[in-house]
Write a structure and sequence with these properties.
alpha/beta, Rossmann fold, 3 domains, 6-stranded mixed beta sheet, 4-stranded parallel beta sheet, 13 strands
């Protein structure tokens, strides 16, 4: 629909207008700084930042039920800038005008209900939010849409000149960063740092295809991240990892979409997300809190972070129940099939600590949990989900394994309904599936394939080699009829079919 086709009373808030009073707020010393420059750490103490809208109270002038209606009506608009996550512009980045919004198809990914058999196998009512349906095939596009829209705004309206974006990645971040930067070329160029040999071929192909300069660095993601942080402090580059607080704003849209798709009723809901660099769980909590403060929802759902035992610093931190005794200790990661979560020192950990504190204070109850799962469980649950009609990556398998673990621990109880985050597209991680089917996992992964989940193609050659068709050697006449009849008979035997 066009704007003028809506009733006059609905047109008032239909198109978001630039506004708000956004600042960078240090999570440690509380220092505030203007957003006229791209800043990633506090200039006073070096801690990470969140973006805060000091004029947030103005949004409370609109009742919660009216915000629900505004967001629902915007779904009907054919305005490109509002087709994606900027449907919720006032909650994320209200300073960015619509002419600077970058939309490549991100957002509005579906909640896909689990099949009844899968629910029975898991022991819970749940669905997947399939973020692999974003344009670069992962949830990272949400953050990039806001981060690059802000850069686009600086270039178009603030004479920022040419910008070089840079990020460290385990695969998905680089794919998203390179894609969105390519759309803004030549004003924006892209460089990505990847840990050598730690990225799947499918993920490596994405930034290369988008034209980014790709650099493979010895070590793991944490090593790449340190190099990128060093460069961001000393050179004129735009850091696009989740250390960039604009990225967190974009990823809040995950929460907004869940609320909208559930008609804003979140009672008894549980949201499970894998923890990598800890930006996503930070954004999810922040998004739900904004919705509650504006009375768009009336209850905060439980949020459960999931980590592999091969990379579990956040889980270890929260094992200590007394907040005053918790000590943050990075870990040395081991090989993991959940490559996006293979981070031993997540840069957003200070955000997690502060936002989890605020979240539970606002909820008035324990609402944030972290569970640990094995590599075996991740692979088994990825394949289990895909066997039941889903498109789930290894991180999605991690979420589902986390749901099972949370049920066992009593964190998820009877009657609660879960939403599992499938962060990327299954096709990015086919190498791990093939290793499972071939029983070819290196010992350090600690994955032992289960026969009932293994699968291999079966060759059917019902006749001798000379009687079979081959490239450049087609069959015809009686020879072809004989081939068809013999092959069909062999397939019927293998499939245990009876003739009509």
């Amino acid at each position: 629909m066009r704007v003028e086709q809506f009733a006059p009373e609905d047109q008032k808030h239909l198109l978001p207008q630039p506004g708000g009073d956004l600042i960078y707020r240090c999570l440690d010393c509380g220092t505030a700084q203007g957003i006229d420059q791209l800043v990633y750490t506090c200039p006073e103490c070096g801690a990470v930042l969140l973006i805060e809208d000091r004029a947030f109270e103005r949004l409370k002038e609109v009742p919660g039920h009216e915000w629900q209606r505004i967001f629902d009506l915007r779904r009907m608009l054919n305005v490109p800038a509002l087709k994606g996550i900027f449907r919720y512009a006032e909650l994320m980045a209200p300073v960015i005008p619509l002419d600077s919004v970058l939309f490549l198809g991100e957002g509005h990914t579906p909640l896909v209900e689990a099949s009844e058999r899968l629910k029975q196998a898991v022991g819970a009512d749940f669905c997947f939010k399939n973020d692999g349906q974003n344009p670069s095939a992962s949830f990272k596009d949400r953050g990039m849409a806001v981060a690059l829209s802000y850069i686009n705004y600086l270039v178009k309206h603030q004479d920022a000149g040419q910008v070089l974006s840079i990020c460290a990645s385990t695969g998905d971040t680089s794919a998203a960063a390179a894609l969105y930067a390519a759309y803004l070329a030549p004003e924006v160029k892209s460089a990505v740092l990847l840990p050598r040999g730690k990225v799947t071929p499918a993920q490596l192909s994405q930034p290369l295809g988008s034209g980014a300069q790709v650099f493979e660095i010895p070590g793991v993601f944490d090593d790449c991240m340190k190099v990128v942080e060093y460069m961001a402090e000393r050179f004129q580059v735009a850091l696009l990892n989740s250390k960039n607080p604009w990225r967190i704003l974009g990823q809040e849209s995950y929460s907004y979409e869940i609320a909208q798709d559930l008609d804003y009723g979140l009672a008894g809901r549980v949201v499970l997300v894998p923890i990598g660099n800890a930006g996503n769980i930070s954004a999810v909590m922040s998004g739900f809190m904004k919705l509650l403060e504006l009375n768009i929802i009336d209850q905060l759902p439980k949020v459960i972070g999931v980590q592999s035992e091969h990379s579990d610093p956040v889980f270890r931190y929260y094992q200590e129940k007394d907040p005053d005794k918790r000590v943050w200790r990075p870990v040395t990661v081991q090989p993991s099939v959940a490559q996006a979560a293979m981070i031993g020192n997540p840069v957003s950990m200070p955000r997690v600590v502060e936002l989890a504190r605020r979240y539970e204070e606002l909820a008035g109850a324990e609402r944030v949990f972290v569970v640990q799962v094995s590599e075996q469980a991740i692979m088994d649950h990825m394949l289990l989900a895909n066997r039941h009609g889903h498109v789930v990556c290894t991180q999605g398998g991690e979420s589902l394994a986390g749901l099972v673990k949370a049920i066992e621990a009593g964190v998820v109880g009877p009657g609660e309904k879960a939403i599992c985050d499938a962060t990327a597209h299954h096709l990015k991680f086919l190498g791990f599936q093939q290793m499972y089917f071939d029983d070819a996992f290196p010992e350090e992964f600690e994955v032992e394939p289960k026969p009932e989940l293994m699968n291999q193609p079966q060759e059917v050659a019902a006749l001798g080699e000379d009687e079979l068709p081959a490239p450049g050697r087609p069959l015809a006449g009686e020879a072809f009829d004989k081939f068809v009849e013999a092959t069909a008979a062999e397939l019927a035997r293998l499939l245990d079919l009876e003739e009509r």
